[in-house]
Every structure is written in structure tokens, then in C-alpha cells.
Amino acid sequence: MPLELKREGLPSDLIKQLSADEKIYFFSPVDFKGGCLESGGKGNYWAALTDKRLLYHAKVKEGDAYLEREGILNLKNITSVEMAEGKPSGCMASKYWELRVNASGAIIGLPFPNKQKGLEVRAIYYELTEREKS
């Protein structure tokens, strides 16, 4: 069973979206240093996983561009979660890792500056969903 996180210290825009009985199991900033993703100013980008949903505010890859998006995916609508290494191209400063979340046929690619955070959220997701099946 994953450990529940305390809400203190988490971004207020995340806290406002949580229901009173919702348990949060993962939170991580998701921003890069340098490269194209930093153009236009630094944002407060993050990803969070609760017992019910995956919430995010991030620059998400769409085609060859990154667009700032906020989203909520219900766990029951997620069909797969995988990690993929992103290769630098154009003005990209360094390699990165992308958590690819497949939900209702759409793939959302959340960038993480290291593989460990993506693997952590993936492991927690599978632990939560396997518990639901039993």
C-alpha cells in the first residue's frame, strides 16, 4: 500500500481540486531547466496522483510542440502508463523522461527531468488499480 502524503506544502491550485476524502499518494514538480520549455517564463508545473485521479499542470508534448495544460484523468479511464526517454531536438537542452498516460485513446506525455519520479508514479498507479481489481 502506498503512503498517503500530507496536504501541507502542496500547491494551492492542487489542494482546491481535491475532495475532502481524497487521498494523495504522489506529488512532484515537472519542469525542465533551460531549452525550449523554459521560454515564456517559468511555471508552477506539477503532477499528482490520488486514490481516484491523476491531476497535472504541465507543459505537455503535442506533436513537435509543448503546450501548457491542466488536466484531470480518472484512474478508471487510464488504460496504460509507461516511461519513454525523450531525445533532445532543436533547442531542447538535455534528455528527459516522459510519463505516457493512455486514457480513452489519447496519450498524455508528462515530462519528468529524471526517470525515478516517473517510475514512482507508475508503480503507485499500478498498486492502486490492482487493489481495485481484487
Q: What is shown here, in short?
A:
This protein has 134 residues and is α+β, with helices and mostly antiparallel strands. The protein contains two helices and seven strands. Strand 3 (53-62) and strand 4 (65-74) form a beta hairpin.
- What's the end-to-end separation, in Å? 13 Å
Q: What is the chain-wise order of helices and strands? A: HEEEEEEEH
What's the number of structural domains? 1
Q: How many beta-strand elements?
A: 7
**What is the name of the CATH architecture?**
Roll
β-sheet strand percentage: 35-45%
Number of discrete helical segments: 2
Task: Describe this entry's structure for a reader.
The model is unreliable at 37-41 (pLDDT under 50). The chain has helices at residues 12-15, 115-133, and strands at 24-29, 46-50, 53-62, 65-74, 78-86, 96-103, 106-112. It has two helices and seven strands. It is α+β, with helices and mostly antiparallel strands. It has one domain (12-133): PH-domain like, CATH 2.30.29. The strands form two sheets. Strands 1-2-3-4 form a four-stranded antiparallel β-sheet, with helices on one face. A three-stranded antiparallel β-sheet has the order 5-6-7, with helices on one face.
What topology does this entry show?
Elements: H1 12-15, E1 24-29, E2 46-50, E3 53-62, E4 65-74, E5 78-86, E6 96-103, E7 106-112, H2 115-133
Describe this protein with a few key phrases.
134 residues; globular; PH-domain like; three-stranded antiparallel beta sheet; 17% helix; alpha+beta; four-stranded antiparallel beta sheet
